[in-house]
Fold this protein.
Amino acid sequence: MREVTFDVLTVWKGLTSRNPAVVRAATSSISCGFEFRKPGTYLVFGYWDVEREVLTTNMCELTRRESEAQRFIKELDKLAARDP
């Protein structure tokens, strides 16, 4: 497992008070690992690991480079606009 630290630009749901954020991801594709590359902007879907107190993601989630996530970002923006 590898931990990556990054700045949060937008939050649609979930943790809002952790900036910079730490995301934990496996490094091997065998274990659904996700490789974050620098420099880069990402849309991160993850879950809070209560034991380790860190956000966790993998390639089986919808986490993608921003350039590959535009349709997800547009949909999240639409949903956020409808949420009172």
